[in-house]
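Quick check before the chapter quiz. The format below is the same one you will see on the exam, so make sure you can read both the input and the output lines.
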Amino acid sequence: MRRTATFAAMLALAAGLLIPTAGAQTGASIQIVAPRNGSGVSGKMMVVEVRVQNFMLNPLSIGKARMLGEGYWRVFVDGKFAGVSADEVISIPNDTFPSLPAGKHTIKAALYNNDHSPVPGGESSEITITIPQKSPMSYAPGSGNPGIKIVVPRNKATTSPYVVVWVRIKGLKENPMGLGKTARPGEGNWRLYVDGQLAGVSTTTVADVVLPRGKHVLGASLRNNDHSPVKGASSDQVSITVK
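Here is the expected output.
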């Protein structure tokens, strides 16, 4: 998880994953670093990558009481809500924003507190991108029994320290605004594990992590809104080597 801070459940993992501690709320900001402003984007989906400063991203506290300097970020497409992330990546389209038509679009990222209120004085970020006429994007989870599969990186792959994990989900609709709420059948989120320890919570098909050199096992599993495991859901794991 490449960001300036992480959530409490990962403190034991922080040293091994080289994750720095959180700063104060003063000067909290978010900056979109990919895609580049004015660029064209093609493919099956777009991954928006940000850098957060002086703010702690904490998915396990979303929906709880406001705490100074802690929360998550939202992404907007042409002024419309398009998802939530407490990583430094998010994929569009997704269950919240399932279609990204061809043409020019404005992408905005903004910081929010645990209680869903905007961060006072928090600096947001905005870019413009273009989807080619022949490459409109759409998303829908696969059908069938709930399950998740890691598609990037592949098993036994060699990677750089910064890893963006891509997954394929079936039988579950991801609900970013349901994080921490009562479990509802058929909706929830997924968790990323590194060497058996929690390393991320996501409500889109991507999550990121920074790893030290060596061999690691990445795992992914589905969760209900209340973070309990999805009964009967299949999970997945891959082994990678970081150079």
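If your answer matched, good. Confidence is low (pLDDT under 50) at residues 3-25.
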